[in-house]
Write a structure and sequence with these properties.
By secondary structure, this protein is an alpha+beta fold. It folds into 2 domains: 202 residues, Up-down Bundle (Multidrug efflux transporter AcrB transmembrane fold); 78 residues, 2-Layer Sandwich (Alpha-Beta Plaits). It is built from 11 helices and 6 strands. The C terminus is likely disordered. It is found in: Cell membrane.
Length: 316
């Protein structure tokens, strides 16, 4: 209740006057995201890059340096180990072995024999071939692109083409910025992460549609106003709703990040970032893009009548 009382009923923030600042910031964010994704790359999980993934729980706090030396002596190629939550939980990533499933199973048994009685529990053992991983990556890209295009078509049919273009650009902004976030943090990028990106797009378009509804209603209501003023008013009127909705969603995601365990920590942090950037784009990117694309108020009925009378006089 305290937060609700802190938000004035009538805000008069000049968002449109700061649109160039917002655009410059977003362009810089997108450029940095693309550069980092290309140069630093994403930390692809076994879902996409293929290989062997073994998650173990040891009987005592794991000695990672000793485990690395033993795994390296097996001659299995690139092997990485990392603590996974508690000191007794370890995640082992092994590159795909030459051969088919038989060779992968042999590598897994070799690792198990090297670990011996030190392991209390094998919590997860997975193998994904590189062909399957590349197909999953391709399907994931298709799913994201088709989802964005589907949303853009829906917005076009429901509103006007300017709304569709603005929504598509804002959603693309959110997706690229989220990919940049994973490039910076190097959290594992897997199928769950891809699902999170689609969730972020869905959440962002929900916020954007709420603002767009207000914009369309106010453009019809205040036909004599400048579009600039109508857009500013629409953002301010819906701002309290947008902030409170995002705030309550973030509370759940923060709890998930703090108490959900290491397995979903990267995913929950990515969702937190996505909600923040999606809220920002709905306010500071989508609506200003309407102004840039030339959205207009409907022609007042009086002007329409005057136009018809003028046409009749010309004909006579």
């Amino acid at each position: 209740m305290a937060l609700i009382k802190m938000l004035p009923a009538e805000l008069k923030i000049d968002f449109m006057g700061r649109r160039k600042i917002f655009m410059a910031f977003s362009i810089l964010l997108l450029v940095m995201s693309v550069v980092l994704a290309v140069t630093r790359g994403l930390n692809f999980g076994v879902d996409f890059r293929g290989g062997i993934l073994i998650e173990i729980r040891t009987t005592a706090p794991a000695d990672l340096s000793s485990l690395r030396s033993r795994m390296g002596a097996l001659g299995l190629g690139e092997v990485s180990l990392q603590e996974f939550g508690s000191p007794t939980d370890v995640l082992i990533n092994i590159q795909k072995q030459d051969g088919e499933e038989k060779e992968q199973m042999a590598a897994i048994e070799l690792v198990k024999s090297a670990l011996g009685a030190e392991v209390a529990e094998y919590r997860r053992v997975e193998f994904v071939g590189p062909k399957v991983g590349s197909e999953l990556m391709k399907d994931g890209i298709y799913a994201t692109v088709f989802a964005l295009l589907g949303i853009a078509i829906y917005i076009w049919l429901r509103y006007e083409w300017q709304f569709s273009v603005a929504a598509l650009l804002a959603l693309t902004h959110d997706v690229i910025a989220t990919i940049g976030f994973f490039a910076v943090t190097q959290f594992e990028f897997n199928l769950a992460t891809l699902a999170a990106i689609l969730m972020i797009a869905g959440y962002s378009i929900n916020d954007t549609v709420v603002v767009f509804d207000r914009v369309r209603d106010e453009l019809r209501r205040f036909k004599s106003w400048e579009v600039y003023d109508v857009l500013n008013m629409s953002i301010n009127v819906t701002l309290s709703r947008t902030i409170l909705t995002s705030f309550t969603t973030l509370l759940a995601l923060i709890a998930l990040f703090l108490f959900g365990g290491e397995v979903i920590r990267g995913l929950s942090l990515g969702l937190i970032w996505g909600i923040v950037i999606g809220t920002y784009s709905s306010i500071a990117i989508a609506v200003p893009l309407l102004f840039t694309t030339g959205v207009r108020s409907p022609v007042p009925e009086e002007e329409e009548g005057n136009g018809e009378e003028t046409a009749e006089l010309i004909e006579n």
